[in-house]
Please model this.
Amino acid sequence: MEKRSVTVAAVDWEEYERAARDAFSAANTSEELSDVHVSYLGRRAALPQALREVRDRETGRALNALRVRLEEAEREAARRITLRQLKQLDETLDVTLPGTPVRRGHLHPLTQIAREVEDIFLGLGYEIIDSREVETVWHNFDALNQPLTHPSRSHRDTFYVDAETLLRAHTSTGQIRTMETRQPPLYIATIGRVYRRDTPSPRSTPNFHQVEALAVDHNITLADLKGTLMHFVRAMFGEERQVRVRTSYFPFTEPSVEFDVTCFLCGGSGCVFCKYSGWFEMGGAGVVDPAVFENVGYDPEEWSGFAWGLGIDRIAAQRHGIPDIRMFWENDLRVLEQF
Model:
């Protein structure tokens, strides 16, 4: 105890404060200020050492007050040095020169295409509908007249959450939910992400975007579907792009068709991308099956309609000449900056 008291009493604290203030005032750079801090307020300086050794209240309060005054003197010196540095910078910096340009971002090419698709449908008088991505088996399969033996119901083709819940395999689920709550006439388009257990390839990915159109009214025929489809393709790809419609089968439409456009890469002559057919498949379509109308409470004797869907990713690939749709998901700026 006596040794600690002698250590505290052995220092002339008034002289200590005067010397510290003079040192802070004389510091002209951040490095000099740091050296002064180490000398008077650092861990091994006399004041911090004395504060650790002092035991009586009065001495402790006096030394703490001294420490506060010196810290304020240090802050004042730091402000002075900073202002001097800024003044020197102002003298060397020409503020009239243009600054470094900030690069602006833009919408992802898939988002750009999706918005253009929306504009085309809005121009036709359709309503854009958004729907949930986690769906029930009923809305994804049963309501769409999908047989229990259909391979798409397999766990190898669909992402199941549990026995009754899954990640939607198509945006047709939004059409079912809309028809369950609204009466015809109905003209809607649903756009969003869908999920399938597809092996990634230049033509497919497990997660992709889809757009589906549904029209329900009196006396709608396959000719109405073909006219709407041709208008959409020409608006999206231009008048010079050829379109092919061929018969097919889907559980939710009868009759059913698939439609293709000429391959952008070979112009229809045949290449690896189009499997040497000259055509690139865009999606399926057809007249709504009466069983689907019955599932949502519509009278198939009174109402008729058509539905068709295609992949946004494939539209973007055809539109921009991208040979591999996986490039849209890799976030390579060398690709994305082109759009």
